[in-house]
Structures are given as structure tokens and as C-alpha cells.
Amino acid sequence: MAMKKRLLVLGSTGSVGRNVLDVALRHRERFEVVGLSSRSKARLLGEQCAAHPGARFLVHDPDAHRRFLSEFPELAIRAVDPDGDPFGKLIEITAPDLLVNCLVGFVGLRPTLSALRAGIPVALANKEALVTGGELVIGSSRTHGARVIPIDSEHVALSQCLAGSRLDDVKRVFLTASGGALRDRPIEEIADAKIGDVLAHPTWRMGDKITVDSATLLNKGFEVIEAHWLFGLPFEKIEVVMHPQSIIHCLVEFKDNSILAQMGVPDMRLPILYALSYPERLETNVAESKISDFPSLTLGDVDEKRYPCFALALRAARAGGNQPAVLNSANESAVGAFLAGQIGFSSIYGVIARALDRIPQAKLASFEDVLETDRRTREFIKEEFGF
Prior knowledge:
By secondary structure, the protein is α/β, with parallel strands linked by helices. It has 16 helices and eleven strands.
């Protein structure tokens, strides 16, 4: 019987993290959760600790950490202190077979690097790690022989379509985009979209930040950058097509003009299972489907007038250096301000564009360089926009 794979799940109380734990429990004979983390969701984390009694855990917001231990004092012996480098401590204490990084935002880069440098493979749902520090992440992966395994449905699909093929034979790849919550809204009404409108994604159930990124299509720009680093593809070979049904997750066109597509119902547990079990495939009862029940499938071009942030992402991607990190930091600040009611939806574009115009391009040679870019961008936006 195969040994259980020991999982450390960062961001376990978020939407992707909850799906990871669902998959792990459905296949408990193959997976053991040895570590959990949350920024602040005490009640849910307490439930997860009960479901995984052998797991150590981290509440990485210090105030939330204190509140958690006051509510669950019996769990104190399993807690990791949030001071210093808490993710690094959790990785060292749990020594997992696989780090599953479901964190949201730039905060996910450091633990990704820490795990890879310790020779621990990473199943990565944290887009921002590759967007801000792709060269560092892939360099660490190669140096220390620890694989980066994507969790995003598009990149899981791409890895399957490319399996056994030479990159020289690839003409181009197509990542599919649902279009987000505002895809059918008249363009002239998009600027007036309210928070509730933007968060009402028609297909996927995700966290607030990624749902906003889906509405701006910046998430797909991030995925273009991820595909570049994960698969060594030049940007000119990576395209995006609109696919509202979210059944086709990726297509690969080869130089003989043949096209392969990967399909599946829009359920994150399917790519998660692939990532957790890689290089195996496990028989499962997750997201079973009947092909004849699939809706009609359509594909179309991206309308950059509807999604101007997508063009900003491609601009930053092609510029390279610190520009993708500037893109990410500016977007995190702008989306945070939108969700807090400080700016309108259409202002997200202006904030990001201003930051890309004003932060000088520079090379990134270390994590500290990325950290400085993040700090400088957020400082600029606070001075320029007041948030």
C-alpha cells in the first residue's frame, strides 16, 4: 500500500484551501494533512484542526492569533507563533512531502521559496508567487530539485496537453477565460458596477480578490505570466480566448496545426486532485460528469476595451524585471480599495497604469529586491491615491 503523502496547506480557510481539504478527506488513505494556516478565520480553522487532529497550525495575523487561542486554549500546544518567519517555522516543524500554497497575494512568495530551498515540492495556487518572483521560484526549483506543480485549472490542463510533447513542436497555447461577472454587462455600464455585481461570478465560487481579478481579466494576465515560467513558453506563444462555459480549460496548437484540448466540469477539486496526486492519477468520485450534459461550447477573442487591465498585464509581462511585481502590488492595493468602497471598479485600471508608468524598471536578483519593489509600489500608491 502506498505511503500517505503529508500535506501542509497554507491558506486552508480560503476557497481553494477548503477544496484541498475536501479532496484530502475524500482520499484519506492517500493524504495526511500535517499543517494548516489561516490569516484570521478562527471558527473555520478550529473546525479544520478538529478534522485533522495531528496537524500543527498557524494564524499568521498576530491579533487574530491571540483571539484564536483565547477561544481555543486547548489547541495552544499545536500552534506556531506568528512572529518572525512563521511560514518558515511551520514548514520546518511539519516537514511535509508537499506544500500546498493556497495563500492570496504577495505573501505567498516567501513560503514558496522556503519550501523549494528545503527540497520540498510545492503545489501552487498562489498566482502572485510566480507573477512577482517567477525567475526566483523556477531557479530555486531547479537548483534544489523540488518541483512546482500548478493547481490553477488552466495550467493543470496545459501540463496534460503538453505531456510527451516537445516545446519546439508547440505553435501556441490558448488559456481560456470565463470573462467574470461583468462579461455580459454593457461596456458603458461597467464603470458603475457595484461590489456585489463584481463578486457575482456566474461559474466559479472563489474568494473576493480573485473574483475581482476575474472581472478585470487581470487574473488571466497573471496566468499568462505563470504559463511562461512554469512551461518555459515565450509570451508570443501564449494567447487567451473567451470561453464562458468554463468546460475547456486549455488548448494547445502544434506546428502541424493539430489542436489538443483539456476539458472538465468547472470544479476546482479536479485540478487539485491532479496536483496532489501527481505523477499518479487517482480514481475519484469528485466532480463526476456526463459529457452529453455539457452545454454548447463557444470560444471568442478578448475585447480589450472591456478588459483594459488585461493589456496592462501583458505590458508588464513583456517588460519583465520588476514590472510584474509592480503590477501585482498595484492591483492588490487597488482591489483592496475597491472592496473597501474607496474607489469605483473602473478606477482599478488607472491605479495600476499609474504605478507602471511611475515605478522605474529594474532587475530582480533576490527576494529582497521583490520585497523592495512591493514596498515602493505600495508607498507610491498611498502617496498618490491615499490608500
